[in-house]
Amino acid sequence: MASSFRSLVEDENRYLKSFRLFLERSSEHQCMQDFIQGVLPEIFTKIGKGKSSLNVIGVGSGAGEMDLQMFSQMRLKLPGITVNNEVVEPSGDMLFKYKVLVSKTPNLEYIHFTWNKMTASEFESHWKERNLDKKFDFIHMIQMLYYVKDPEATVSFFRSLLSENGRLVIILVSGQSGWGKLWRTYRAELCNTEISQCVTTGDIKTFLDAKGIPYKNYELPSKMDITECFTEGDEKGELLLDFLTEVIDFSKNASPELKAGVKALLRHPDCSSEEDGRVIFNNNLGVLVLDP
Ligand SMILES: C[S@@+](CC[C@H](N)C(=O)[O-])C[C@H]1O[C@@H](n2cnc3c(N)ncnc32)[C@H](O)[C@@H]1O
């Protein structure tokens, strides 16, 4: 059953506001940075072997913060490399922020950016229409597979674009996180499957296992302070609740039973722990690394 609520993604302004707040309240980008600095360099060495130029796609890159961190590690590992970077991002606002970030960051002359203001599936259609056979050395999809209609088909398409030594990196919330528990319990009520999928790395692993596609899996510990969600009427708490449920104005639109059930689950030990009087949600991420 699909949820009857309006999805947060339908209101770009509110979505971006709640996403920004989520980044402030969580160690989301910090744990990704640890992965980018700790694990990716070894992967870059493998994909860059014998190459002077790399083809890269960022799918759902947002404002590009993580992309530029990855490029900086890539450049450290592969000095002298040049990069052709396709950015696939449907939000004009995000693309604008990404371009501003690029303009303010020194020494990026080695990267050629192609801005594709479109969804992953629009990119796929254009690619197929033009019958292109270009291959890519590094493709990343960071926290974006929730927003495609068919995450598995999207993974299959982008994997088909990998070069011989190429790698596809997928980051999503881990099946073991508070998100996984929330979605296993309230998927029918919260998930508007027309717009967004409550998908975790657990779901993608099940798909890859069924297809016999090998992958490497990393778990990234991450936390999110959701204390404000439990103060009725708190503006930031409401935004965080919208982000967690993916529902616009969840507090106003949900039935009292659903609201109580979701809030109880959010502070249940399956989802959160209590630290110094704060409610800390388990925001652990999973990373899957695939080869061609
Ligand atoms: C949660 S943000 C993640 C942004 C960035 N990767 C990061 O981790 O900071 C999700 C991004 O996916 C983009 N997005 C939404 N639907 C998409 C689609 N169908 N195809 C590609 N990107 C999409 C959004 O505009 C947004 O920038």
From TrEMBL:
InterPro entries xrefs: HHMT-like, SAM-dependent_MTases_sf
Gene3D superfamilies per the UniProt record, alphabetical: Vaccinia Virus protein VP39
Transmembrane segments: none
Residues that hold substrate according to the record: 28, 283
Keywords: Methyltransferase, S-adenosyl-L-methionine, Transferase
Keyword Metal-binding: no
GO MF annotation list: N-methyltransferase activity
GO process annotations (BP): methylation
Subunit annotation: Monomer.
Annotated protein name in UniProt: Histamine N-methyltransferase
Organism: Clupea harengus
Gene: hnmt
